[in-house]
TrEMBL record:
The lineage of its organism: Eukaryota, Viridiplantae, Streptophyta, Embryophyta, Tracheophyta. Keywords: Membrane, Metal-binding, Transmembrane, Transmembrane helix, Zinc, Zinc-finger. It is found in: Membrane. It comes from the Eukaryota. It holds the Pfam family zf-RING_2. Belongs to the RING-type zinc finger family. ATL subfamily. This is RING-type domain-containing protein. InterPro entries: Znf_RING (IPR001841), Znf_RING/FYVE/PHD (IPR013083). Residues 77-119 form the RING-type domain. One of its GO terms (molecular function) is zinc ion binding.
Amino acid sequence: MSPSAAELLSPLFLVAIISIIVVHMVVCYLVLDMIDQQVDSNDEISRMDAYDSGLSVKELQGISCFYLEGQANSSMCVICLDSLCEAGLCRSFPPCNHVFHAQCLDPWLAKKTTCPTCRTPLRP
């Protein structure tokens, strides 16, 4: 009394269908999880961009400029890697007082609000 081929095929067919459904659900879960992680990552990047969006023109004008007086030429602007000379217009980064050429520091501060030398933030 051996079972017929149709009787054996039914349980195998049912197991195959259930297996396909389970694999499909696992793949869907993994894809949705990956999409969710990308959205979270983009939100974090947006928050960082909003925090580190740079200074406005008005804020840049609030940082005073000066000419170096009596300092040796051994001082260097770390943005352009040129020496700071007495004839050059300079700015001092307020929190840490590092000195840079004004024409070098202004574009930097328009993009970032950290010191180019020590990464001290301008805003707390």
